[in-house]
């Protein structure tokens, strides 16, 4: 005897849209991860200190046999990231101490996201990205950064994903890189030593 089994299929609008919690819906809206700015923040807020330290060791590795030491950002940098709502984390990497020179290198790494939908005019998208970068670069300057690294194609909202190659309009001559960079952050101008801009073009 054969038994016919019926499988109930619920119609959904999107990927589990009606099953999403309020927190998940808010995350999709503001770009956060359940209200947190980064995966690191989720772990820090929800794991016991001892467990978080061990997880950090696995993710970040060790420096001279110990976990990375965190650095407290200056108040001016805190004000900037609180006002403009970006995530700022600072760590200290220990190295062999030199006898004749004091520690002098502080590296800043910036990973950004787009601001406006990719359907808006290119000029507006680029302007929004630049406006978003200004306070971040100023926070780096306020924190004493003298080597600043930006991610590949940082000033492009999208690239290499459309057959029509419209993203080529975001391209800029290499000769304008430093000028554009210095226009973004005011507090970096006096201390800038090195710029690493990977344009990817």
TrEMBL record:
Q: Which InterPro entries does the record cross-reference, listed alphabetically? A: Aliph_Amidase/BUP, C-N_Hydrolase_sf
One molecular function GO term is: beta-ureidopropionase activity
Basic and acidic residues bias: where? 7-27
Give the residue spans that cross the bilayer: none
- Region called Disordered, residue ranges: 1-27
- Top-level taxonomic group: Eukaryota
The processes (GO biological process) annotated in the record are: beta-alanine biosynthetic process via 3-ureidopropionate
Entries under PANTHER family matching the protein? BETA-UREIDOPROPIONASE, NITRILASE C965.09-RELATED
User: What is the protein named?
Assistant: CN hydrolase domain-containing protein
Which organism does this record belong to?
Gossypium barbadense
Record lineage? Eukaryota, Viridiplantae, Streptophyta, Embryophyta, Tracheophyta
